Structures
1.
Amino acid sequence: MVRNHKLQNVLIISYNFPPEGGPAVQRVAKFCKYWSRSGLNIFVLTADKKHVVSDPSLMYDLNAIQIHKTRDWGDRLPGDLKKLLRQFLMPDNAALWRWTAVRRGIELVKKEKIDLIFSTSPPHSSHVVAEKIAKHCRIPWITDFRDEWSHNPSFHKQPAQNKQKQLENRVLNSCNHIVAVTAKARDNFIRMAPLHKTSLIRNGFDEESFSGLKKKEHAGHIQSNKLKIAYAGRLNQLHNPIPFFAALDRLVLTGRLMANEVEIEIIGNLENRKWIKDFPRLNKMVRFIDYMPHEQVLSHLTDADALLLLATGMHNTEFFPAKVFEYFKLEKAIFAVVTKYGELWQIISEYGNAWLAKEAEILEIEEQLLDMHKWLKTDMLQKPVNREFVNQFCREKQANELIRVMENVVENI
């Protein structure tokens, strides 16, 4: 793409970054990859801290990017002390990172002649760091919210909520542009900041990550009538498997589904196992697999008949599990348990190859599971997929869209 010559050097501020693994780094890593290929000089400021999981494979496409790390002193605090200090750490547990990050960021802006700052959250401390650097150096700054701040479903658990909202309002009105990943989040931000400075750029998939994957043939499972469902990621209150497990357990208990007719793979941290403790009947049906590199996860998902999506506890707002777009790209049947009809439900429905149920409706989940299994028996599991719809979520296209946003911000300073 032809770029604005005024935009050349970009500083990315992201608390999480490869070789750290997990979902928090996927979006920013892929943007950096394609921004660098477009000719931009990309400099990343991230935290030097412990990684819960690592995925060195994510570094393969980032050789041209300069990565600068500064110590997060809060990362060294014991967990109990962090909890004690939580009400003083604004806006989150990464708050002490700014002690080292702001100084290094200012140095980088001056040394590398940075044209624009792009900060991504959570944690929202990344935006606080960016704000201080942008204000000191008087350069434009874009915020990217992978999750919302005060409208996040878990915000009610946060301490000092009034102070948090004041800080959020300051960030939203200080930055030059706001990027949201859902229409609902964009609308929420518009109520707090001017309409013209807010954009919607959803999460997506990297086309190149799928180039070596082979689509699975379903004949073997059809002969055995066994439905293999896979899930990738953490289980928590926003990705709660209890309604799904409860429905599956009742189907087995009542004999409407035999235990040997369904196999579930849960790929992620082995702590996920705690969620099945109340369903001993499912122990032989559900298999837990430890965290693995992203490319291996995609291979496992390719081998499944259907993919499980859990988006629960979202009564005040909605966010999309980022994996849904990779599910789309795999063109697999999706079994989705969501809180309510809404933006996510509409998006998955438009994809086409999906079965959806609300988390509070256990009977609805049961019926959808039985319907999916029936389709498997008749060799009809793969409903038609809207490929034109899927292709809009390509990371490269989204990265180019963001470049246009950045160019416009720089041009209008």
2.
Amino acid sequence: MKCSRILLITSLLFSNFLFAQKMDDSLDKTNRAKFEPENGKCLVFVGQDMDAIGGLSEYSDGYCDHFEIPAGITLYTNFSPGTNSYGHINKGNDGIKTTDNWGAGDSCVQCYMKISDFSHSLVAIGLAFVDHEKQLAQGDHDNLIRDLANWIKGLGKRPVFLRLGYEFDGWDWNHYNRKHYLAAWKRVHRLFKELGVENVAFVWQSKGTGSGQDVLEEWYPGDELVDWCGYSYFGNPDTEMLVFARKHGKPVFIAEATPVTQKGDLYFNTDLKDPKIAVRVWQDWFVPFFRTVNNYQDVVKAISYINENWASQPMWINNPTFQQVDSRIQVSPYISEKWQEEISKPRYLKPGPDLWKQLWKE
């Protein structure tokens, strides 16, 4: 009898434990932001053009031709019709359904959506509207908003991370007007909602250094309009956005990350093709980067690595920050081995139908 009572008590305790664990998991999922992984997990994206990503017959020497396809890919577009970028005249929504190049490599998101190898890949889209924030805010570009919204909606359950007006505080290159920027953000968000686009998460992204809490608060669209906070991690990253995101209860997407090493205003060569440079860059950039990713697991839930030969592109060839950068992991056996060792850890999620189920709250 005593043995039976012990077994009964043990069974009841175990049942209560499982019930409590299930309730905790359910509560955690309810409290998570749109497409936020569970605690301790992280999504890995790769970008930022088709040569960098690879995986297609005509783009066959990118990341996906040397490594397992990551959870997601990153590409770009704009709401800036008429803008001339390195000889390309924007039409708006460039690089979404057509292959376009505005000086920084080919972009075509739709090209990946129809390939079976990417059938469960997440998508991150950097959406710029520099010099068009006022027109966007007052409704002049509603046709572009609706076109993009309906295209994203047409992807069904595929999660899309929309980095609307990314690097809003990049004063030297983006020069957004704060009043119109915030009004534009609200209009885009409202139209997406009216059109019933459910498979999109709005990411609000800082340039990643130099903007304190006061600046971030001034430019913040609001908790109800932002799903994720984001920032760029290049040469001099800081933790301001991590502090801000914790304060607002938002997950963080390190939406642009590439090895830039510098001391003050002096930038060093980070061409990973050079074996000696590759070893130095791993220690000087990759190690601190992954330390940040792993030390802030409560907020850093997604990263996007820019696997790019920056120095080969018109937009960057004379840029002091990127003109000496070749960040392609596959060109360095040393970096490739180290990178593979890190992202093979269970913390980093893989694409597949199970991943979509994990990310949707239902």
3.
Amino acid sequence: MDRSALHSRTAPFCRLTVCAVGRDSSPDVHDVVVVGAGILGLATARALLRRHPSLRLLVVDKEPLVASHQTGHNSGVLHAGLYYTPGSLKARLCRSGKSMLEEYAEQRGIPVQRCGKLVIATGSTELPALDELHRRGEANGVPDLQMLGPAGLRDVEPHATGIRALWSPSTAIVDYRTVAAAMVDDIRAAGGQIRLSTEITAVTKSSGQLLLESASETLAARNMVACAGLQADRVSQMTGSPSLETMVPFRGSYYLLSPSTRSLVRGLIYPVPDPQFPFLGIHLTRRIDGEVLAGPNAVLAYRREGYRRRDVRLEELRSVLADPGFRLLARRHWRTGLAETWRDWDKSAFTRAVRRFVPELRSRDLRHGPAGVRAQAVDPDGSLVDDFRLGSEERILHVRNAPSPAATASMAIAEHLVSKAELQFADLP
């Protein structure tokens, strides 16, 4: 991944309100406006144009670059589908989306490396969860899974240690920013438009048409798809379709292994995940550019697009802390939250977590790297929303929750959204 992708963008979020306009058949009226130019918004725009070539389509984003947030801060893993509840949207769309994205990357000459993933149990208490992970992977059709003992896991990762491991050789890595850039080219080649640095400040709707207002112009559209990521709940609420869930931003910080120790990790080394959380724990990830990431932790971000500890927006922080669902979540899992926060500040604690799997690593081998913010929806009962969640109202589709593996599944999610749009949207040519 290009390190220029690892910057933060902190422009204001899109605010959407509702009033009325009339229908207009003018060429200036877009058939569909996609709000959000992350990989999911771009994949959806591309899929719409492929199935409806004469569509007048516009993608808008408040940032000056596409893929500025979750896509651009992604570690680059193409997940095989190990973790997800069989039959869930995540399970189905991750598997199909991975195949679609790999095929697309091959067509476009985008490098993909099947380096494989090793999920390691370091103690006997983790073995039941590892067995469950194996069962889920097989139920989800993940190919070539193997359960390995200590000698077998060292054959895969010579410097790793553990009592048992699940090996997924089909797990791969890719640069999602490169994928997003290729999708931009496809959208433009198909006649679609992409308008950046355009913050939508109001949406008006009535009589079969929408107006999307920004500081510099008003955009007319018949239909809208909101792929707003970290702002998904706000976009939903401000279009008059309030969501029950609240979007909570979790910051994850990474370290980078020093050049002299990158060879200690061949591919992807993961812990056995805690089944109570959708987070996968601190792991080691080889990237397509040769760097090796260690992390991330998962701590509350103090603003929705806050990639540094010092990034604070008091209004956003107060809103999260006052949310009843988040309060229930925090009350239920405060010990885990404290442990994650401690590792975020204490490098030696972070290093101990990494050395469980690769004992040769030392604190001096870790240097500060990038960070990302995960958009994680929380229900009013304090439950973390585990599956992808979509919503709809008249002429508008919302992606309400699409955390990892949304990048892996992006092309399959896009096809799913387009099928919904064809049933719900009017006037698609």
